[in-house]
Write a structure and sequence with these properties.
It comes from Heliomicrobium gestii. Keywords: Iron, Metal-binding. Belongs to the HypD family. Pfam families: HypD. The structure is a single chain. By secondary structure, this protein is α/β, with parallel strands linked by helices. The chain has a single domain, classed as 3-Layer(aba) Sandwich (Rossmann fold), CATH 3.40.50.11740. Helix content is about 40%, strand content about 15%. It has helices at about 1-10, 10-35, 45-50, 55-60, 80-90, 110-115, 125-135, 155-165, 180-185, 200-210, 215-220, 230-245, 265-275, 305-310, 325-330, 360-370, and strands at about 35-40, 65, 95, 120-125, 140-150, 170-175, 195-200, 225, 250-255, 275-285, 285-295. The strands form 3 sheets. The protein has a 5-stranded parallel beta sheet with strand order 2-1-7-8-9. The longest helix is centred in the first third of the chain and has 22 residues, at about 10-35. The protein is globular.
């Protein structure tokens, strides 16, 4: 059944028909606005899917698709990266982290380099994997680096609750989990961006529900569409957004109904509420954003790595020439960065946008460097056209 659904959403003939409809709709919108519409996606998986499937190139003459701060690894602050690397050097510590974090540069080194020097750094696929490592190594402090948005935070919350039930006193979380709405509220009013509409993250919306995004229309007067990840789903979402803009209707529409419901996942939301408080968060590129960081509640301080292993760190400056911060804000593209595909490549990244598989620079390096200008004539399933 799953394969049949995917086949339908990847159908080339239907994609061509929908693409022409979307282009026509966008052209009418261009006439109304006097310019191409600026549409921003807030999901790194969307960024990759839009490039991988050829949607960006296909629609380039008709709409400006902008990539926002949708990569949780990329928006992690320099100081947090340095603290995590410093924790890897603590005697008896095991750092458990997602693979994307291994090569993110700190001010002097990376977790991968520290592992090569003898630090015990292990790649895991979930916080529950990290808890299993803590069970197997009761004499060592296992620190899970929790990176993500609303999608991964519930699993971290459930893991912490399990650790509490077990009395697992050698398991800790360094929480870099962040909320997306505060970042949107901080970024979207920027007059330099002129954002007209938002493609809303599908994975986050599976947890939060469609109604989570109504603040966009109420507070910012912007339309948004919850989008899926297959070619036809992406085109459908852009089409919905073009219609909303054409009608001057700042509503939030769910175009990913096969996975996203109005109310979201109540159990996941409740787990987050039980374990996390909101504090000001430090975002690469955006700076300090109020009430955007999910930190463990004071009652859970015994499992909070930041509390149990306090470190004084000197604030780090971004690498000279790296434009990750501006790229995360949608003000620059990777092609604007003098280091892109030159001094900065996936094998030797300078900034996190080239490290993570959700990073805009990594996506552009893989799919956009050789794209044919002027708009692709077909949808592609991956790689070069």
């Amino acid at each position: 059944m799953h394969k049949e659904i995917l086949k339908r959403f990847r159908d080339p003939e239907m994609g061509q028909q929908m693409a022409q409809r979307v282009r026509d709709s966008l052209d009418r919108l261009t006439q109304r606005l006097g310019r191409r519409a600026n549409v921003m996606e807030f999901c790194g998986t969307h960024t990759a899917a839009i490039s991988r499937t050829g949607v960006r190139e296909l629609l380039k003459p008709h709409v400006n698709l902008m990539s926002g701060p949708g990569c949780p690894v990329c928006v992690s602050d320099y100081s947090d990266i340095d603290r995590i690397i410093a924790l890897a050097g603590q005697p008896g510590a095991i750092i458990a982290t997602f693979g994307d974090m291994m090569k993110v540069p700190g001010s002097r080194t990376t977790l991968q380099e520290e592992k090569a020097r003898g630090a015990d750094v292990r790649i895991v696929y979930s916080s529950l994997d990290a808890l299993a490592i803590a069970r197997e190594n009761p004499q060592q402090a296992v620190i899970f680096v929790g990176v993500g948005f609303e999608t991964t935070a519930p699993t971290a919350a459930v893991t912490i609750e399990q650790a509490v039930r077990e009395g697992r006193d050698n398991f800790f979380i360094y929480s870099l989990h962040k909320l997306t709405p505060p970042a949107m509220a901080a970024l979207l009013p920027d007059p330099e961006l002129q954002v007209d509409g938002i493609l809303l993250p599908g994975h986050v919306s599976m947890i939060t529900g469609r109604g989570y995004w109504d603040f966009l229309s109420r507070q910012l007067g912007l339309p948004g569409v919850v989008a899926g990840f297959e070619p036809l789903e992406l085109l459908s979402a852009v089409d919905h957004l073009a219609q909303l803009l054409q009608e001057g209707r700042p509503s939030v529409v769910n175009a990913y109904g096969r996975a996203v419901k109005e109310e979201g996942n109540r159990a996941a939301l409740d787990a987050m509420a039980r374990c996390f408080d909101l504090q000001e968060g430090h975002w690469r590129g955006l700076g300090t954003v109020p009430a955007s960081a999910m930190k463990l509640k004071p009652a859970l301080a015994s499992w909070d790595a930041e509390v149990r292993f306090p470190l004084e760190m000197t604030p780090a400056a971004p690498p000279k020439g790296c434009l990750c911060g501006e790229i995360l804000k949608g003000k620059k593209t990777p092609f604007d960065c003098p280091l892109f595909a030159s001094g900065c490549e996936p094998a030797r990244p300078i900034g996190p946008c080239m490290v993570s598989h959700e990073g805009t620079c990594a996506t552009f390096y893989r799919y956009e460097r050789f794209a044919v200008s002027g708009g692709a004539s077909h949808l592609r399933e991956g790689g070069r056209p």
